[in-house]
């Protein structure tokens, strides 16, 4: 004991302090490392739980979309966040969100109209018909976007703004943006950004249809030439071009707010005997020419010439025949 004391006495104060500090640290490590281990287990467990939850949600969502064909709003919002495909067209993914947007915008008003008057089986048949139509449209829009890249065709935000502003006055009524968006939400279930997406898809498809359809452009040039040399005589166009065009008459005064591709509203801008230049139908599927016969403040009587765009549809049909359209969901359209 005295020997130990003597050895201890020989230590400097600095050495004693260092030894004491090491003793304290050693005691602390007994508590530190178990706590670190506990934290590690907590972090690991949390990550594993999160992975399991994500896997369950992903699997449930996958089955809901691809097997159960569910179309509720929650899934629609999820597909807007995660750009998953519903089909492929010539190796280009068709957005699930585009398909659901087109379907939901069509079926909402139908369900409200027939929900209490139609049996469930008939309503389900209608739903499947609209799903089939929406998926086909989404595929065509995707193909149009693909062709637009090849043709260096774009649609600017300014063009969408102009089209949106034009829609505010459809039917001759000047609406505020707020009131128009309320109509869009109530009748089609679309937000402003979704409606703008619809406008973009229509514009890009129309631009592509015009760019690739040499036949329709040549016929339109011929119509312009015949009208210019025959004092806007539509009969002369019929004689010259025959079944290359579609000629139609209203047969009398009709509402100037008619939903007819924009012909009635265009005719209202004219004076009797005057013909419009060519313009694109509101759904972007053809050129129109209209000639005003007569009008009142709210009604209009006119004749029209239609030149359908056919090249886009023919190319799309070839893709179908060649098996280059693959759908990841099945839609039962049988009664």
What does this structure look like?
By secondary structure, the chain is of the alpha+beta class. It has helices at 2-9, 13-67, 73-81, 96-114, 120-151, 157-167, 177-188, 192-212, 214-229, 234-241, 263-267, 311-321; strands spanning 85-89, 92-95, 246-249, 254-255, 279-280, 286-295, 299-308, 325-327. The strands form two sheets. Strands 3, 4, 5, 6 and 7 form a five-stranded antiparallel β-sheet that branches. Strands 2-1-8 form a three-stranded antiparallel β-sheet. Helix 5 (120-151) packs across helix 8 (192-212), helix 6 (157-167) crosses helix 8 (192-212) and helix 9 packs across helix 10. The longest helix is centred in the N-terminal third of the chain and has 55 residues, at 13-67. The chain is elongated, with a radius of gyration of 34 Å.
